[in-house]
Specification:
The protein is an alpha+beta fold. It has two domains: 94-165, no CATH class; 180-387, MetI-like (MetI-like fold, Orthogonal Bundle). It has 15 helices and four strands. The protein starts with 31 loop residues before the first helix and ends in a 5-residue tail after the last helix. 29% of the residues are buried.
């Protein structure tokens, strides 16, 4: 007996396609949470991802605080840059205390007595625990000129009238180390920003031309980059710094050092820009801009560079520490900035004599902000580099 199989009657399958026009901004199309993510700009997505990198966020806050202190260095420094205390030469750091004789006294330091050790000719200071020196805040101290033209005399903190407080000690001329480190931050931090500005301008222009045009322009740029990168950096720094006339003012030397550091650090960025533009110049929107008559400079500046601006920001946070270290190295070797200009590198020249460092180790304290700033920039660069790809 044979059975004949017949196919079941065909049924139309239900579908869920909405024939209405799709509007991604309507509440029916997206939930509020989806709308917040899908309609966010690239910068907002980067910010959300950057906030998840807690170390980078705190490093960014730390750097912003340092720049704020550097801008208002005269207010935050307890003494003027050139103030000398001839009776307190090589004074050791004074610790800040809060309690005295079992009770709360507020921030204060102990006064000291001076004695010259005739055996090793070391200046020895004895802390007098029976004589506290109260610290005042937002008080009137040494008169100064904010930014060189605004007369003021308010400081963040200062000791009691007629007393002294050296939280980080003094140098061979009796100048307060804390005040000089704060003033030096203005020069060292600004050199990094200005130097990166110069190197980024050169790197984007030269690398952009090589990546956009290619051909013989790319070949010439690549050979120039290879020649510059083949020269050892430190001897090149020394040679360029040595040709500066000794008759130049400290301000001219400052700008010359900044320009030198900027001229030598553009090669890496130029190669990165070139590689990005080689891949982006074949995109359809570039061809559309060309057909509409846009000139190459507009295409590079308005269409290509914004496509990887996040990469440039991450590269800047890595290049700035290089500038700061370059200035510190040149000044430490005596070929960079010179007094009366004060930077962290200039302050470290006091620590070249190992005998002085052995007797007065607080002269090495200017290296501490250099280390902290370099680490902060590196961690900030890691966070920005991770946030540069918000879809990852």
């Amino acid at each position: 007996m044979s059975m004949e199989l017949t196919p079941p009657a065909s049924k139309s399958l239900p579908h869920f396609v909405n024939d209405a026009p799709f509007d991604p901004r309507t509440i029916e199309a997206l939930t509020p949470a989806q709308e917040r993510i899908y309609l966010a700009s690239q910068w907002r997505l980067m910010w959300w991802k950057f906030k998840r990198h807690k170390v980078a966020v705190w490093c960014g806050i730390f750097l912003l605080l340092l720049f704020f202190i550097a801008v208002f260095a005269e207010f935050f420094a307890p003494y003027k840059l050139d103030s000398r205390h001839i009776n307190h030469i090589y004074h050791p750091p004074q610790g800040v205390h809060l309690f005295h004789d079992g009770g709360f006294k507020g921030p204060y330091v102990y006064d000291t007595d001076y004695h010259l050790n005739m055996d090793n000719l070391k200046r020895e200071y004895t802390f007098r625990t029976d004589k506290p020196v109260q610290l005042r805040f937002f008080c009137k101290g040494e008169a100064y000129e904010m930014w060189g033209f605004v007369p003021m005399e308010r400081h963040l903190f200062c000791p009691a009238e007629g007393q002294n407080a050296f939280l980080l000690g003094t140098d061979r001329l009796g100048r307060d180390m804390l005040s000089r480190i704060i003033y030096g931050a203005r020069i060292s931090l600004s050199i990094g920003l200005i130097g990166v500005g110069i190197s980024f301008t050169l790197g984007i222009i030269i690398g952009g031309l090589a990546g956009y045009y290619g051909g013989w322009v790319d070949m010439v740029v690549q050979r120039l980059i290879e020649v510059i990168q083949s020269i050892p950096s430190i001897p090149l720094w020394l040679a360029l710094a040595a040709i500066m006339p000794v008759t130049w003012s400290p301000l001219l030397v400052y700008f010359a050092i900044t320009v030198i550091l900027g001229l030598l650090d553009w090669t890496g960025l130029a190669r990165a820009v070139r590689s990005k533009l080689l891949s982006l110049r074949e995109e359809d929107y570039v061809l559309a801009a060309q057909l509409m008559g846009a000139n190459p400079s507009r295409i590079i500046a308005r269409h290509l560079v914004p496509g990887f601006i996040s990469h440039l920001i991450a590269s800047a946070t890595i290049s700035i520490p290089t500038m700061i270290l370059g200035e510190t190295a040149l000044s430490f070797l005596g070929l960079g900035l010179r007094p009366p200009v004060t930077s962290w590198g200039v302050l470290l020249t006091e620590a070249q004599n190992i005998n002085v460092v052995a007797l007065y180790p607080w002269l090495m304290l200017p290296v501490l902000p250099v280390i902290l700033v370099i680490l902060a920039y590196n961690f900030l660069g890691d966070g920005l580099r991770d946030a540069a790809d918000p879809y990852k």
